[in-house]
Amino acid sequence: MALISHPCPSLIPLKQNHTTITRASTGNNSNLPDAAKHTVDTYIKNGMVVGLGSGQVSGMAIQYLGRQLRSGALHDIVGVPMSLESACEAATAGIPLLDQYQDTSQIDFAFDDADIIEEGTLIAVIGRRRSRGDESIIQEKSILNAANKLVFMISKNQYQSVLDGSIPVLVQSLNWMEAAEQIDDLFIGDAEVWRRPSIGHADPLGGNFPLVTKEGYHVLDVIFTSPITSLAEVAECLNKVDGVVDHGVVSKFPCTVVITSESGLSIVDNLRANAAVEGI
């Protein structure tokens, strides 16, 4: 059963503008460092406040940004880390950090990894792989949404027209089971709902040691067994469930995706065509 059968409203597809940067193939070597370098060199300018993402490619971008600051190629950059991991990497790289991030903080540009991105809309899923309670989907999404410009850096197999896998959902701890049951009913036949554990193996209840985020929420992994035909539709359905605080679906305008493959880099931009998906 496909998700399109559920009574959640579909949204008008977004237009996109696609340009490609072709570089010499590196054989079996990854072009992830090229994506990090391209992102820093192309989008970060002197005097910017920059949101620093989490993940492998973001770590490379943070390291390269630090080298550019030390060499004098860039100056007066202030970083806003999205996680403890990115804060530690930025400190090691010598990037000055904002003393305290608030929702009202101005962020000129942000870069981040994504677990998967929907082709055409550039709606992303974050938070699939993180298992530590000190990481925060809420903080990461807040910084991404606050940025005037956003770049996701991914590999080619993470850019898909039909998506699968899981979407993390943050729920209130006291009534997490009620929220899980509502989500299970919402996507019955299309997904399984498991509570994420802090240690040990996962199971539907999350074991005796469920993961608790630093804000005090539990994490439900909604694991889709049928293709996800619309991330915007899924996000809208999740937003209506009592007890759901946030989730790993991110939609942002403007947004650019730097896609790596063995043949080089592809750059995809979205163009604002329908404001209905804003605020996901």
Automatic annotation (TrEMBL):
* Pathway named in the protein's UniProt entry: Carbohydrate degradation; pentose phosphate pathway; D-ribose 5-phosphate from D-ribulose 5-phosphate (non-oxidative stage): step 1/1
Per the record, the GO terms for biological process are: pentose-phosphate shunt, non-oxidative branch
Q: Spell out the InterPro entries in the cross-references.
A: NagB/RpiA_transferase-like, Ribose-5P_isomerase, Ribose5P_isomerase_type_A
Molecular function per GO: ribose-5-phosphate isomerase activity
EC code: 5.3.1.6
Q: Which family does it belong to?
A: Belongs to the ribose 5-phosphate isomerase family.
Write the protein's name. ribose-5-phosphate isomerase
